[in-house]
């Protein structure tokens, strides 16, 4: 399986000072009130609405990339809401993730799927981990093998990854067709129709939004998951540490430190980097060499080579 099992050289940090910074941050009033997450909610919703209402002034050349980034950022926010932020009330948190700004998935579907993904014992296992890109030996065959191989390249993940992931989710919902599934998807459809009507009034074609904004936004989020997990025996070695630059860290809310997130899923996004830097050497040792240095290098390295093997090695 292709990988880059190396520890990239970055500026060293004093773990004692970083630990002190983390403790100070966690004790601060703004941290206890989760002001960074409340500010994030305001920025995403405010930015999205401003782009829509001022679409005619911005024009598609400026408005489109802004809405793509904001929609992708919104999906990162939904992830934060799922993990119990900014309040301890899951229902209240869910209210901030219900609107279909990113179009594709009902919040409840993403929530249930993602929480199931956080089972360390079954992480990456096909048929059990909902977010795995591996297939089992029983699922292998000539049909679909080339498609899966292409999907596991960076080009394939960006081009067809969203379509394959969404179609799989819809197919699963269709096969279930129980009361809960119908209510969740029905509610999502109503909210989506209302949002698309608002976009139409603002001068944004619903088809344009879905194809030119929402689809690339989902592709952008898939940059993070391109090589986020690998199938190895060590549980801690299954989740990556990606020492990415600040634009990626902000867009993905520090989920590039994915091992840290899986070890401490309740840690808010604005503490993940501090927690990592405070015990960097420990996390690097825990990762069994599953370390990357940024996403652009990753995208280029696996532009035509699959980032993982198609078949899970021990499923």
Description:
Helix 1 (15-27) runs antiparallel to helix 15, helix 3 (35-53) packs antiparallel against helix 5 and helix 5 (60-82) packs across helix 12 (206-225). The chain has 315 residues and is mainly α. The model is unreliable at 1-11 (pLDDT under 50). The chain has one domain. It has helices at 15-27, 29-32, 35-53, 55-58, 60-82, 90-95, 107-117, 145-151, 154-159, 161-176, 179-201, 206-225, 246-251, 258-263, 269-278, 280-286, 295-301, and strands at residues 241-242, 291-292. It is globular and about 55 Å long. The protein contains 17 helices and two strands. It has a two-stranded parallel ribbon.
Secondary structure blueprint with pairings:
Layout: H1 15-27, H2 29-32, H3 35-53, H4 55-58, H5 60-82, H6 90-95, H7 107-117, H8 145-151, H9 154-159, H10 161-176, H11 179-201, H12 206-225, E1 241-242, H13 246-251, H14 258-263, H15 269-278, H16 280-286, E2 291-292, H17 295-301
Parallel strand pairs: 1-2
Domain Fatty acid desaturase: 61-281
Pfam family, one: FA_desaturase
GO molecular function: sphingolipid delta-4 desaturase activity
Structural class: mainly alpha
Overall pLDDT level:
93
Q: What is the number of strand segments?
A: 2
Distance between the termini: 15 Å
Biggest sheet layout: 2 strands, parallel
Keywords: Membrane, Transmembrane, Transmembrane helix
GO molecular function, one term: sphingolipid delta-4 desaturase activity
Pfam family, one: FA_desaturase
InterPro entries: FA_desaturase_dom
